[in-house]
Structure formats: structure tokens, C-alpha cells
Amino acid sequence: MKIGFIGTGVMGNAIAQNLLKAHHQLWVYNRTKSKTDNLVALGATWCATPQAVTEQAEIIFTMLGFPQDVEQVYFQENGIFKAQVQGKILVDMTTSKPTLAQKIAATGQAAGAQVLDAPVSGGDVGAKNGTLTIMVGGQQATFDQLQPIFQAIGSQVNLFGGPGAGQNTKMANQIMIAGTMTGMSEMLVYAKAAGLDLNKVLETVGGGSAANWSLSNYGPRILKEDFQPGFYSKHFLKDLRIALDTAAEMHLDLPATQQAKDLYEKLVDQKHLGDLGTQALIKLWWD
Fold first, then answer.
1. Less packed terminus of the chain by CB within 10 Å, N or C?
2. Is there a contact between 96 and 67 (Cβ–Cβ < 8 Å)?
3. What is the pLDDT of residue 230?
4. Which H helix or E strand runs over 91?
């Protein structure tokens, strides 16, 4: 297929590599051009704007940082909707607002395009290994059409409903992760204060009923003092804010998620560590 990929950061770059490995033609754009150099070396074609990518490709994926980035790439000058999108498929993989996903879908459908929101979970490891969990909102026929592409980048792919349903599912996912990240951090803080062997604690806790993805993937990184981002803390804070804003619209009170958001605000806004991985939450206690 002729695929466009816009946004080649930690996650997007790895996903794009897997699309190239699956022998798709690829046109790429990123605000920092150097982040596409490895993809061009592998056979992708650089484009100067999102509009230019859209003009070349049949299917356009976006994987960006914040909702405002999504707004810009789709709607502003030289954006996706400045191109002729009739007959094309647009897939936003950014974790973003459900309402924005619905806006993109309505605009795209009015212009003759098919649109999916398809945020992912699995971090840098899942992106590199092609084992992401992909949560999709949109039309069944479009979802079915993209199954071969989704299978090249993910191991679990599900459609949850119409436009915005993928984003709402990702919010549920992030609410769950908020609990595992705070639980893991406080567990390690407690175990260290009690003088326990932290490597043995990780092995033991990870082998019992407290086992979880955050523990097995981020616990060892913390003990190695590896805070490189598999997923940026600033992006996780963005996700928690979206989840809580959307919950408020549904008249829901989520106190544990609110506490996690408050902790990540301290890490990102007060300690200015938003460019570190989410496992850097431990720095609120250990630094």
C-alpha cells in the first residue's frame, strides 16, 4: 500500500519501521526532519508538509504528541485537509480527545474520506516488536480493510464503536496504567525504606498476584536508573488530563486518577522532568 506517516517520534518511528518491513511504500513527515532520517535510509520518502504526504498516499497515519498538534496537522495551513482526501483513509493513532476524533471524522467523511481513531498501548517495546494493542473507533468496513496493516504493527486490534470510541478506550487504559504506575512507585519506595533487596522484590512481586505490565517493564529500568522515555511523562500527564476532563463531562469522579494526575504534575510542571519516561515518577521520592 501507499502509506503516509506523520509524526516519527519514539512510537511513530518504530511503527513506521514495521510498515516498511511489511513492504509498504512510505511517505513521511515530522517537524524535526532528522527524526525521519533512519526511515528515509530504509526506503521511505520525505515530504515537506502533511499536505504533501496526503497527496502521495492512500492511507495516512498520524502519531503526534498533543491534541493541539493533531489540530494543526489536520486543519491548519499545509495540513491534511488542505489536500484532496476523497477516497483516502485517515487514521489518527495519537492519544487525543474523543471530541477531536469526532471532529476529524465528520470533516473527513464530508470530504469523502474514511476516518479511524486508533490510539495504541504497549510503549516503545510494543512499537518496536509490532505487538501494540490498538483501540479503534470508526466504521466496521474501514476497520476490516485495514486489518492487514494493523496486523503488521499490533498483536491485539479491536473496534469499539464509532468515531471517538478508540480514544475513550485508550482513556480507560490510561486510567488503569495510572494505578499501576503509582502502585509500583510506592511499592519500591516502601521496599527500599524497609531495607529489602529491590531486585528480589521485583522478581517476587512480579511472580504473584501483583504482577502487571508497568512492574515488569519499568521496574527493572528504575533499578538501573534508566529514565529514557518509552513513553514521555509529559504525554502521560496530557492523557490523564484528557481522561479526567472527559470523565467530568460524564459526571464521574475518579479520585485515584486525580491523585496520579497531581503526582505527574509535580514531576512535569514543578520538577520539569516531562521529557523523561513515565518511570521517572519515582524521582518524587528518590531524588
1. C
2. yes
3. 87
4. strand 89-92
